[in-house]
Amino acid sequence: MSKYPTGAPGAKREETIDRRLLELLVCPLTKTPLEYDEARQELISRAGHLAFPIRDGVPLMIVEAARRLDDEPKR
């Protein structure tokens, strides 16, 4: 799931998530589909107003690990 750019050792690592996995995952609270935010490395549950972090290519799908979307400023 992780990809490493070519270059010197210690180069910045970019994280990605397998699209097939994303199709299978749902919000553990609402059971609704998730959106992938590549820039923030999060899976977004619009229905649950939660953002689940992705660490080292692994989604942390527990409500306690999620960030509340209500906390972010309105755009």
Features:
75 residues, mainly beta, N-terminal domain of TfIIb, 5-stranded antiparallel β-sheet, two-stranded antiparallel sheet, globular, disordered N terminus
Write the layout of secondary structure elements.
Blueprint: E1 2-3, E2 14-15, H1 19-24, E3 35-37, E4 42-45, E5 50-55, E6 58-59, E7 67-68
Antiparallel strand pairs: 1-2, 3-4, 4-5, 5-6, 5-7
Shape, per Cα inertia axes: globular
**What is the end-to-end distance?**
31 Å
Using the 3D structure, state the CATH architecture: Single Sheet
Radius of gyration: 14 Å
CATH class equals Mainly Beta
Mean pLDDT: 82
Number of helices: 1
Indicate the structural class: mainly beta
Q: DSSP strand (E) fraction?
A: 25-35%
Q: Point out poorly predicted stretches.
A: 1-13
Work out the helicity level: under 10%
> Biggest β-sheet: count, sense, barrel?
5 strands, antiparallel
CATH topology: N-terminal domain of TfIIb
Return the domain count. Answer: 1
- Number of extended strands: 7
Give the SSE order as H and E letters: EEHEEEEE
Task: Give structural notes.
By secondary structure, the chain is mainly beta. It has a single domain (2-6, 17-71), classed as Single Sheet (N-terminal domain of TfIIb). It has one helix and seven strands, in the order ββαβββββ. The strands form two sheets. Strands 3, 4, 5, 6 and 7 form a five-stranded antiparallel beta sheet that branches. The chain is globular and about 30 Å long. Residues 1-13 have low confidence and may be disordered.
